[in-house]
Amino acid sequence: MYLTTYFKYAGIFVLLIILQVSVIGYILSIPNYNITPDFVILLVIYLGYQRGHIAGMVSGFLSGFILDILSGSFIGLLALSYCISGFIAGYFHRQLTENSSKKSSLLGIIFVCTLVAYTVFYVIYFQGSNMNFFDIFLKHVITTTVYTCVFGLIFSLLVSRFNVNKSF
User: Fold this and answer.
1) Cβ proximity of 87 and 57 under 8 Å
2) What integer pLDDT is reported at residue 96 of this predicted model?
3) In 3D, which of 127, 125, 113, 49 has the Cα closest to residue 84?
C-alpha cells in the first residue's frame, strides 16, 4: 500500500519537474519581472503538510536536487530551499483542529513556506552582487511568492473540492 503511494508521488513529481523545466517557464512566466510560478514547491509543501517533516524534507531535497541538476547552476541551492520549505510545512502536520478551515490554512502555509524558501534561495543566489537585501526581497522574493501563491490558491481549492486527502 505504501509503495503505490510513493510511486504516485514520484510520478507526480516527475511530471511537475518536466513541466516546470519545459513548459511553465515559457507559458506562465512574467518576463518583465522575471518570475515564474513554482508548482514543484506546492507539492513539496503539500507533502510536508499531509505527511510530516520527513516526507516534506525528503521530497523537497530530491525534487530540488533534480531541478538543480537540470538548471545547471548552484547545485544544491534549490534542494536546500525546498528542504527547508518541506520541513516548515511538516510543522503544520496535524496541527489543525477539526473546526479550522484547511483551505485557508493551506494557503497561509503555502505563503509562509514559499516566502522562507525563496528568501533563502535568492539571498544565497545574489550573494556577492550589488543588490542589497531589501532589493532582493522586493524584486524577487515577494513577487515569486505572491505569483506562486496565486496558483497555490487554485491548488488549495482543488484539494478541498476533490478531497484529495483521502485519495492519497
Assistant:
1) yes
2) 52
3) 113
Average pLDDT across each block of 10 residues of the chain; the chain has 168 residues. List them in order. 80 91 82 84 93 92 94 90 95 63 73 96 92 91 93 85 56
Of 63, 50, 46, nearest to 10 (Cα)?
63
* pLDDT for the residue 99: 52
Residue 118 grid cell: 525563496
Buried residues in 71-100 as b, exposed as e (16+ CB within 10 A): eeeeeebbbbbbbbbbbbbbebbeeeeeee
Whole-number pLDDT of residue 167: 45
pLDDT for position 166: 47
pTM score above 0.85: yes
